[in-house]
């Protein structure tokens, strides 16, 4: 007989923990992680780390034997750098995820703005086409002038006496 714990077709019960989950403001933590990630990606950070490691190594090679705290293989330095890297990597990934979210929102806003621009352009195009069609049916000032001049010429031609011998 299988226990309910082994059944895959039913959801597991929610596990209760003795310790409450820590609560924190994810937005504040995200902003802090972005600031740290931005700093980790600067030349200033590289210079600081280089100076720190150089001072550490020089101190543990040159200082009197009683004042050295990390002898030659520099195991403690390696531990410190590994610890720094283990914290830096998730902070950088968190900052990248936040940037991806911002980029996605910006992309959606740009797309919506482009859709509105296309719709506005299509509307204006239809309006201009409608105006052109309407103007073709309306007599323009130049057309009226030419028609009036032609009628004047016809009237003048009728008023002239006809030469019977012509």
From TrEMBL:
Question: Which stretches are annotated as coiled coil?
Answer: none
Listed transmembrane segments: 45-62, 74-94
User: Which Pfam families would you find in this protein's record?
Assistant: DUF1003 (PF06210)
Which keywords does this Swiss-Prot/TrEMBL entry list? Membrane, Transmembrane, Transmembrane helix
Q: Where is the signal peptide?
A: none
Q: Which domain of life is it from?
A: Bacteria
User: What protein name does the entry list?
Assistant: DUF1003 domain-containing protein
Please tell me the species this chain comes from. Actinomadura parmotrematis
Q: Which taxonomic lineage is given here?
A: Bacteria, Bacillati, Actinomycetota, Actinomycetes, Streptosporangiales
